[in-house]
Design a protein that fits this description.
It is built from 16 helices and eleven strands. It is an alpha+beta fold.
């Protein structure tokens, strides 16, 4: 394992795996839709598309694709709310080619004008497909209710067609120049490699770029971006199921590791497994829902935990009240000894399997590399997990900001006084200390 910061600020992490026959080259930048203005929402994603439209060595996207596939490789790029990435995987005999290509695309993309016109059509088509999906429709109402108007947290990574249509080529180039700086570039290489040779190749490419600096990141995000606590209902008779989220502000990404791991243990116990308390009662014992889960979303300066399920109208009141009561009981009394032991064992054994395949290794190190002050191996985190106590779990649960809790209901259930009164009662239970 090798970790260094080059003299120009580029962050480098290398992890050799001599037992495999491939090399996986990933380059990341922090940014994404959380660093966009509303009138340019979708710009980071559009810029990511333009990265692959040409370089000094490849005149268009087809040439890039053909070259990589000639080497039996694969590639892709993605953008989310807080990062942008390009990756290429090749046979390990082409490690130098992987580094050269990633460098060429990351720092030397040519942003050809003719490609911009064509790619805008493709991005608009992609956006239209996303808008058709149930996930977008539910997600939009959820974001609009959960976060205050005007906050970047309401934005979707891909953007809306009417906004994408206004994006100009110059906008994509400016975003690239602003965020693809040396101090905001993270190079991650995993696979069968000669680590000393790879260090030289990265120094000759990524290390040759003149030092540049990105703006201060994510300063506009804070816990004050949450909308007021309350019950929010989207009555939609076109839906067959009712989709319910109980959302509570929780720990942001920069929280110290042990506390985040304690919170993660708590969510695993309550709803992170098919055998967890939530699924055990609602699905296996009562048959009221098909699935129920709990999930945490953590970004710089803000976090939330959501308890979610879908239910038919016939079982709505029984299922919703039972889910609320289970959540309240867990927050007040915490886990049992058996639940603690089961969840710890599950996390322990799953974490030991992280390094069984390159994609999971990349996922592990990407998070450690980009978002933690110290890179830890899975085994090191398990030493922390082993010592987390039930008292620590209960303490994290007691610190949940229940005063900011929201219940978001979407589906055919009638939006009447009965439903609102019932959901407000459930919210009061959650907020009671």
């Amino acid at each position: 394992m090798h970790h260094e910061v080059l003299s120009n600020g580029v962050h480098v992490f290398l992890y050799p795996l001599h037992e495999i026959k491939s090399v996986h080259m990933h380059v990341f930048a922090k940014g994404g839709s959380l660093m966009e203005n509303p009138e340019k929402n979708g710009l980071a994603h559009f810029m990511e598309h333009m990265l692959l439209q040409g370089t000094p060595h490849f005149k268009n996207a087809h040439e890039i694709s053909h070259y990589i596939e000639t080497l039996a490789g694969s590639f892709n790029a993605y953008t989310n709310d807080r990062e942008i990435s390009f990756h290429v995987s090749l046979p390990y005999t082409y490690t130098k080619e992987a580094i050269d290509l990633a460098y060429d695309i990351w720092f030397s993309s040519t942003f050809p004008e003719d490609a911009f016109v064509k790619e805008k059509r493709a991005v608009l088509s992609e956006a239209a497909q996303r808008l058709d999906g149930l996930g977008y429709k539910l997600g939009k109402f959820g974001k609009d209710m959960r976060f205050k108007e005007g906050t970047k947290l309401r934005q979707f990574t891909i953007g809306l067609p009417e906004v994408i249509q206004k994006i100009q080529l110059e906008d994509t180039v400016n975003y690239w120049k602003q965020f693809f700086t040396t101090d905001n570039t993270y190079v991650l290489v995993i696979g069968n490699m000669d680590i000393e040779e790879v260090k030289k190749q990265i120094q000759a490419t990524f290390g040759s770029v003149e030092k540049t600096s990105a703006p201060t990141l994510f300063t506009s995000i804070s816990g004050s971006d949450f909308a007021p606590s309350g019950v929010y209902i989207n009555h939609d008779e076109k839906l067959q199921s009712n989709y319910v989220d109980i959302s509570i502000p929780s720990l942001p990404l920069e929280t110290e590791r042990r506390k985040l791991m304690t919170a993660g243990l708590a969510t695993t116990i309550f709803g992170g497994l098919t055998s967890s308390r939530l699924q055990k009662v609602l699905r296996w014992e009562k048959g009221l829902v098909y699935g129920a889960s709990i999930d945490s979303y953590a970004i710089p300066h803000l976090g939330e935990t959501s308890c979610s399920t879908e239910m038919r109208s016939e079982q709505y009141y029984e299922a919703m009240e039972l889910m609320t009561d289970l959540l309240v009981e867990f927050m007040h009394k915490g886990p049992t000894d058996d639940e603690m032991a089961h969840a710890k064992q599950y996390i322990h054994d799953r974490r030991l399997m992280v390094f069984d395949e390159p994609s999971r290794i990349v996922g592990w190190f990407k998070h450690e590399f980009l978002w933690r002050d110290k890179i830890m191996m899975p085994e090191e985190t398990l030493e922390i997990l082993k010592t987390i106590t039930k008292e620590e779990v209960n303490a994290v649960l007691s610190e949940l900001n229940v005063s900011g809790a929201q219940i978001i209901q979407q589906g055919p259930q009638a939006d009447d006084a009965k439903l609102r009164g019932f959901l407000e009662t459930q919210l009061t239970k959650i907020q009671a200390k």
